[in-house]
């Protein structure tokens, strides 16, 4: 990983884009490896090396998680802090049993999932050719769709489940994490009316109006619906939107703290791009700024970015968010 | 990107002609090839496995038609049924729409008809609607007959072509046909269809210049 000799594929199997900014990445990485090493040491001291660590959800762990979960602890920690482990243990059926029930299903949802498989991360080596991951992804999505008919399959979930699989490489754990996200941690984004999404788009508009009124007015004047620029932020939880390492750092806290993290990230992104947004004069330029947010050096530097997320984005609590959601709820 | 057409058209002030901007929205069932048609039209490219569109994407492309430069502001949308609730935000104020179906899939043709009905009821009254039977390169697996779609299009006053984003067949042509059918009067010159609540025309001193310059 030294120097600028980065491989064309990152550690999660994503091909680096043609316009990949190796210089910025190199500057960030040379610092970030030190952070990673220090963090691994601290986690090892704290939780040891044993396989079945029981993470207790407390203030210390929250602080640790905000600084990023080391790769080797990630699956285990996500399972615990999200509640997925508890849901798995209290379920009457194992993942294998749930999966075998879905296999016989001829639901049209299954066709929708199959159509999306080759369209999910086509530039990722683990999702191409004869790799086992597309098949695992199908199993996770089909099993989930079969046991939750209110949601079934919603386009965009393939990116969420796909990235969970790339991290865990474990089909059962991926299923339980996906289920916990959709059924416990997130509003009703993925149901047939997408009611939770529509509410949260209005909530985002309101939060931007409150914290960055100039930006809110400018976006409104240009005529970009929030749904156009940010649907993928909520539906894909920033997967396929921001750099992978940044997304995983966001997910670390999302699994621990819930959906307010999505708004904190959104507000941070908007603040980082305030000047750029205000300089745009038409929809084409404005959507360009949103599309290129992943290339901002501060966004690539996931460590600094997450500091901004927790410092810049104000005191957005889950209860404030819930109040806003009730205000903007549409029936 | 936004400036591309502007700068290309500004270099000499003596040329005649006008610029018309139109908002065009793509609608249709998931995986019929909406994004692929746009990618072919705007960038001349085709990806066998085009990532699914979540939410909506925005692109622009400019074509010349006699003495008029037509700039399309293209709103490309997600196809899955449940994203339908977001669609009115996208087609509001659109002057043109391409409703896409897959000629190898009868259900997508049914869904296209539903979109046409909705546009006729809810969208701008003078919207120009084109029906695109995409994936013409897979004609040997055809399940929607050309004549059936043509008849439906005639009955509803739609433009109709079978297209292939893969081979580029009829892709430019369908956009060109739409451009020809759109009214090129002063109302559309220099203004933008996306400008819901946008008041650029009142305080935009450039407006006149834009109207008068063309390549």
From TrEMBL, chain A:
InterPro entries found in the cross-reference section: Rab-GAP-TBC_dom, Rab-GAP_TBC_sf, Rab_GAP_TBC_domain
Top-level taxon of the source organism: Eukaryota
Domain Rab-GAP TBC: 68-258
Keyword rRNA processing belongs to the record: no
Keywords: GTPase activation
Keyword Methyltransferase: no
Molecular function via GO: GTPase activator activity
Primary role: May act as a GTPase-activating protein for Rab family protein(s).
Name by which UniProt lists this protein: Growth hormone-regulated TBC protein 1
Organism: Hypothenemus hampei
UniProtKB/TrEMBL annotation, chain B:
Catalytic activity: GTP + H2O = GDP + phosphate + H(+)
A Pfam family this chain is assigned to: Ras
InterPro entries tied to this protein: P-loop_NTPase (IPR027417), Small_GTP-bd (IPR005225), Small_GTPase (IPR001806)
CDD domains: Rab5_related
Enzyme Commission identifier(s): 3.6.5.2
Gene Ontology MF: a single term: G protein activity
An annotated GO BP: protein transport
Domain of life from the UniProt record: Eukaryota
Segments of this protein annotated with the region Disordered: 185-215
Top class in the EC scheme: hydrolase
Keywords associated with the record: Endosome, GTP-binding, Hydrolase, Lipoprotein, Nucleotide-binding, Prenylation, Protein transport, Transport
Localisation per UniProt entry: Early endosome
UniProt GO cellular component terms: early endosome
Family (UniProt): Belongs to the small GTPase superfamily. Rab family.
Protein name, per record: small monomeric GTPase
Source organism phylogeny: Eukaryota, Metazoa, Ecdysozoa, Arthropoda, Hexapoda
């Amino acid at each position: 990983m030294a120097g600028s000799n980065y491989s064309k594929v990152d550690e999660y199997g994503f091909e680096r884009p043609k316009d990949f900014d190796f210089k910025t990445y190199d500057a960030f990485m040379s610092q970030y490896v030190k952070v990673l090493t220090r963090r691994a040491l601290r986690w090892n001291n704290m939780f040891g090396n044993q396989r079945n660590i029981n993470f207790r959800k407390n203030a210390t762990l929250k602080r640790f998680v905000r600084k990023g979960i080391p790769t080797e602890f990630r699956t285990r920690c996500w399972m615990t802090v999200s509640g997925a482990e508890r849901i798995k243990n209290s379920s009457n059926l194992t993942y294998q049993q749930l999966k075998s029930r879905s296999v016989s299903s001829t639901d049209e949802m299954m066709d929708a999932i199959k159509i999306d498989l080759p369209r999910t991360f086509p530039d990722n080596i683990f999702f191409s050719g004869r790799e086992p991951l597309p098949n695992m992804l199908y199993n996770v999505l089909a099993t989930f769709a079969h046991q939750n008919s209110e949601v079934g399959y919603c386009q965009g979930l393939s990116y969420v489940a796909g990235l969970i699989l790339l991290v865990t490489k474990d089909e059962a754990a991926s299923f339980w994490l996906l289920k916990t996200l959709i059924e416990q941690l997130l509003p009703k984004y993925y149901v047939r009316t997408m009611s939770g999404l529509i509410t949260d788009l209005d909530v985002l508009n309101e939060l931007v109006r409150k914290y960055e009124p100039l930006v809110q007015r400018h976006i409104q004047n240009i005529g970009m619906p929030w749904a156009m620029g940010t649907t993928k932020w909520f539906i894909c939880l920033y997967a396929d939107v921001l750099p992978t390492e940044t997304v995983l750092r966001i997910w670390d806290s999302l699994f621990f703290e819930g959906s307010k993290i999505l708004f904190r990230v959104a507000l941070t992104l908007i603040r980082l791009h305030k000047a750029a947004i205000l300089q745009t004069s038409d929809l084409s330029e404005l959507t360009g700024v949103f599309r290129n947010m992943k290339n901002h050096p501060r966004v690539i530097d996931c460590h600094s970015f997450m500091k901004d997320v927790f410092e810049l984005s104000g005191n957005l609590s889950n209860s404030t968010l819930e109040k806003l959601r009730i205000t903007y709820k549409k029936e | 990107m936004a400036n591309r057409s502007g700068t290309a058209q500004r270099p000499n002030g003596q040329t005649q002609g006008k610029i018309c901007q139109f908002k065009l929205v793509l609608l249709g069932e998931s995986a019929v090839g909406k994004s692929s048609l746009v990618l072919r039209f705007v960038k001349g490219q085709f990806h066998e496995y085009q990532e699914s569109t979540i939410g909506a994407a925005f692109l622009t492309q400019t074509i010349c038609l006699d003495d008029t430069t037509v700039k399309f502001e293209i709103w490309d949308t997600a196809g899955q049924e449940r994203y339908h609730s977001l669609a009115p935000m996208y087609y509001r104020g659109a002057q043109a729409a391409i409703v896409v179906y897959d000629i190898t899939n009868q259900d997508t043709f049914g869904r296209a008809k539903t979109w046409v009905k909705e546009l006729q009821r809810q969208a701008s009254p003078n919207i120009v609607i084109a029906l695109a039977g995409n994936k013409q390169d897979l004609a040997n697996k055809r399940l929607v007959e050309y004549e059936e779609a043509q008849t439906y299009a005639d009955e509803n006053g739609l433009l109709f072509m079978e297209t292939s984003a893969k081979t580029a067949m009829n892709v430019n042509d369908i956009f060109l046909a739409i451009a020809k059918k759109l009214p090129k009067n002063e109302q559309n010159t220099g203004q933008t269809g996306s400008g819901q609540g946008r008041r650029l025309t009142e305080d935009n001193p450039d407006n006149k210049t834009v109207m008068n310059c063309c390549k």
